Amino acid sequence: MQRSDHNLAYLLQYENIAWYENGTVRILDRRIYPARKEFVVCKNHQEVAKALTDMVTQSAGPYTAGPMGMALAAWECKDMGKKEQIEYLKKACATICDARPTTKSRMEIVTSACIPVAEKALEEGKRADLAIREHVVEANNRRYDKMAKTAEYLVDMFPKNGKVMTQCFAETILGMMLRVCKERGNAIKLFCPETRPYFQGARLTASVCNEMGFDTTLITDNMPAFVMANEHIDVFTCAADAICLDGYVFNKVGTSQIAICANHFGIPVFVSGSPDIGHPNHESVTIEMRDPNFTLQAMGVRTAEEGVKGYYPAFDMTPPYLISGIVTNKGIFSPYDLNRYFADGSDGEFSV
């Protein structure tokens, strides 16, 4: 089987995101990458769900880890009757989908798709766990290919050797965007906000950009306005954890304020990803509130005095009037016209 993760950075190789093998799922621990390359080993699907809740992997990582967790669940129930195995998988699907509320809609798509794969394997006398793993690789190939096409449209918006600001870790589209830039000889310069409190921009985005050979500058989360004005940023781009059909975008907290700054300076804002048919409007999205104490430290070192309170929304909402375009595998759409994406039967990024 040809794979679509070729010529991408270490973080974007399937085995280095999450991988099922012989009754375990190993997930690269992005909380400590790149200082250390270590994997969290999960011995049951509940441990996979906990790893997702604990942010062992994030961005698009859960959409590999979650289905690999379904392969593990198939291993767990392999000695049950066929009917009991399917019921077990349905319960495992619900457990994994509940790990992160803001992205539950997308997770339901990728995990529930593993159940008919298991049913077919069992009917044919094959191992359901291996059939699910093969399905996950094929689904990843389809998603990566969609994002490769998305990247073609996105890079069209970059001036030659321009300056591009990112936000958080855009995972697949980031790698595909950089791969397209290399193929076109467009030596863009990246400016990456650090993305506290998990520092995904510092540890993940900057690492991928640097590894793939691009001029990469890390900035703190309070620098975007200054950098836009003084470094003459050409484009701000990010991915999204949810793109609602009414044009509102949910992404890592901090995205909205960067979009506001970009609009102030006349810098276009392009959000990559397919609209979520499961989110007809922004009121259907639940913002995940995480442990507030995490904002009182930086990489394990406390930065605030005892008694100071923290506050930690994991995502924020960017309204459509701040967005220049939603970049998809079908082209660039106005945030006010996202229903048209589905008019010709197109499906979303995480469909199977």
Describe the protein in words:
- The protein is of the alpha/beta class.
- Helix content is 37%, strand content 16%.
- The strands form four sheets. Strands 6-5-4-7-10-14-15 form a seven-stranded mixed β-sheet, with helices on both faces. It has a three-stranded antiparallel β-sheet with strand order 1-2-3. Strands 8-9-13 form a three-stranded antiparallel β-sheet, with helices on one face.
Short description:
Helix content is 37%, strand content 16%.
List how many beta strands DSSP finds.
15
Please list the strands of the largest sheet in the order they lie side by side: 6-5-4-7-10-14-15
Q: What does the average pLDDT come to?
A: 95
Rough shape?
Answer: globular
Rg, nearest Å: 20 Å
Give the proportion of residues in helices: 25-40%
Largest sheet: 7 strands, mixed
From the N-terminal CA to the C-terminal CA, the straight-line distance is 17 Å
Q: Give me the strand/helix succession.
A: EEEHHHHHHEHEHEHEEEHEEEEEE
Number of helices: 10
Classify the secondary structure makeup into a structural class.
alpha/beta
Beta-strand residue percentage: 15-25%
Extract low-pLDDT stretches: none
